[in-house]
Amino acid sequence: MPKSVDRGRRTREQLLDAAAQLVGEVGWGAVTTRLVAERAGVNAALVHYHFSSVPDLLSTAALQFAERVLTESADVLRASEPSVGIEQMLEDLSRYTGTDPQSLLLSEALLASHRLPELRTSLAALVADFRGRVAEWLRAAEVKDADAVALLLGAAIDGLVLHRALDESVDFRAVAGPLRRLVTG
Fold this sequence. Notes:
Elements: H1 3-26, H2 33-40, H3 45-50, H4 54-78, H5 82-93, H6 101-112, H7 117-140, H8 146-166, H9 176-184
Helix pairs in contact: 1-2, 1-4, 1-6, 4-5, 4-6, 4-7, 5-9, 7-8
């Protein structure tokens, strides 16, 4: 791989990392080309070389993170039987406090998706893919109403993260039993 391609890829990743951090610090609407470039330690012109706009950069950062989290969560579930998978997934998700930069990035992206149709469509596709993977896992475990249970499980996880953002005492482990019963019948 030529050095320029490798350098370009590193710069793009630096910009995505900087944008993701800044959303959590200043909010989606306050992130600017200048702020991202300063945080990434690059020339501001490189922001627009790699991304068509700041919303494009922010959307890409949010989608990249959302895809990683949803894939990891689905993989944790699919690697275990339902009773164990729920515990492991909740343990894995407990690293997100609701006020950490990654949680804030997703919250801000959800809000922005109401104004950015492409972001909304892409986020919806990621969530649908997650639900599909979870439903497949549930069907393999012979859980009744796998699609509906997958929807409930996804919504419960989203709600838990939102509740934790408002109340840091929310402990995901406290709901492990009820969620386990939901998926095991």
